[in-house]
Amino acid sequence: MVETQVLEGKASFQIASIDEPCFTYYKIIGDLSSGSPPVVVAHGGPGAGHEYLLTFADLWRDYGLPVVFYDQIGCASSTHLPQKAGDEAFWREELFQDELDNLLDHLGLRSGPGFYLLGQSWGGMLGAAFASRRPKGLRRLVLASALASKELAGQGTRLLREQMPPDMRKALDEAEEKGEYDSPAYKNALDFYYRKHVCRADPFPPAELLPALKHLSEDTTVYRTMNGPSPLTSSGSLDSWTVIPRLPKITTPTLIYNGEYDTSHDIAQVPFFELIPQVRWITFPNGGHMCHLEGGGLRERILKVVGEFLTQKDITEVL
To answer: 78, 121, 145, 237: which one is catalytic?
Structure first.
């Protein structure tokens, strides 16, 4: 068994339009000097923080891959910027690309063995866009329950909504029409959606997901500005976002995966599969959006698939 090592730190992050000093919090599991490429993990939300992805810390124990978690700017243990709430020109993909570049440089990950990048949900959207720039040092890419565009994501959400009971669909429609998201009927419909499509763990929510829910509720700046007032109501700076034209530029071997019941519907995965030159796509039966937290062997299977993809010397054997 590989000895567990944990290192926490902060990377200074200079933002042109912000006068105050900013920083990105990070946590490293394992030894960056081990000679193996570290796995840099980009979380979702936006604004969810890294803790719900700590499942992937086991990549160090099981595969000898150091893992770098970080909290994106505006949430969790990184600098919060509530004064930028509603500023759609500020909260854009480019800000988070700059932050990831800054973190990689701070940790010196571009040289030597390079690094792997795993992005989940919004982190996968960011990861695909980042990889399309062919950044120095990037060796392999994992897009976990990501989305190729918000338009396709919306189509997928509508298909999932059509499967919900009529009274719940009505509650969702009325809440969106009135802009009121506090009714018991709406909250009941949203809870049903979460349990069926977001995280199918029983009991729900699992303990690992609680920090993310806390971050998203305590500071809504990033999520509401980029994504909108509700998981089922898309607006904000990501509303017209797409990475589709950039996908052919990704030369890194790529693994994409989602769950059978995932909010990241198959519709939103197809462009990844069709346009990324070296790609493998897996849909996990009975899985939701957080299938790395779910039971029935899902968590273990995902770790195995990701670990083998990242450590297989002959990449053609896993593509």
So the answer is: 121
Question: Could you tell me if 143 and 119 are in contact, meaning their C-beta atoms sit under 8 angstroms apart?
Answer: yes
**Residue 194's pLDDT band (boundaries 50, 70, 90)?**
very high
The stretch 248-276 carries a mean pLDDT of 98
Is 265 catalytic? The answer is no
In the chain, the percentage of residues whose pLDDT exceeds 70 is: 97
Domains annotated for the chain, with CATH where assigned, are 6-150+236-317 (3.40.50.1820)
Opening angle at CA 223, ends 222 and 228, nearest 5: 125
Give the single-character DSSP code of 196: I
The question of whether 121 is a catalytic residue gets the answer: yes
Which tokens sit at 42? 């980009």
Choosing from 149, 262, 265, 292, which is the catalytic residue? 262
Per the annotation, the verdict on 43 as an active-site residue is no
Rounded Cα gap, residues 259 and 252, in angstroms: 23
Residue type, 173: D
Please confirm whether the linkage preceding 46 is cis (ω < 30° from 0). yes
Q: Which of 94, 156, 158 is nearest to 129 (CA)?
A: 94
Query: From the candidates 197, 215, 289, 292, which is the catalytic residue?
Result: 289
Amino acid letter, residue 235: S
